[in-house]
Write a structure and sequence with these properties.
With 109 residues, this protein is α+β, with helices and mostly antiparallel strands. 33% of the residues lie in helices and 13% in strands. The protein is built from 3 helices and 3 strands; from the N terminus they run αααβββ. A hairpin with a 2-residue loop joins strand 2 and strand 3. The longest helix has 22 residues. The model has no long low-confidence stretch (mean pLDDT 84).
Length: 109
């Protein structure tokens, strides 16, 4: 942690062309397992594979921070990405039981 309260964590790369990643936004069972009901309601028809994997990577980063800093391991559905915080520039906010965590991601073709 730096003096500005930043904690950098690494994250896995999601290959959006990988067959196992394609179409996951249409898999209601999978979506319900990783997204909070409020996220599903807020995103509705806007949920695409790319957005789903962005949310997943944001939650994974927040999970790593919570587990490192607070020593707890929250389930994915307990971490909620604020739909209104998602920007085209790759910024978002993940709400956790310990407070909000700002995340950043990139999507490359």
């Amino acid at each position: 942690m730096t003096g500005t309260n930043e904690l950098a964590v690494g994250n896995d790369v999601v290959d959006l062309c990988e067959p196992s990643a394609v179409g996951k936004s249409l898999d209601q069972r999978y979506v319900a397992r990783i997204l909070a009901p409020a996220e599903v309601a807020a995103l509705g028809q806007r949920l695409t594979d790319t957005l789903l994997w962005q949310l997943w990577s944001a939650k994974e980063s927040a999970y790593k921070i919570v587990s490192k800093v607070f020593g707890t391991t929250p389930p994915a559905r307990a971490l909620s990405v604020r739909a209104e915080s998602i920007t085209d520039g790759g910024l978002g906010i993940v709400d956790t039981e310990h407070g909000p965590i700002q995340v950043r991601w990139t999507v490359d073709p």
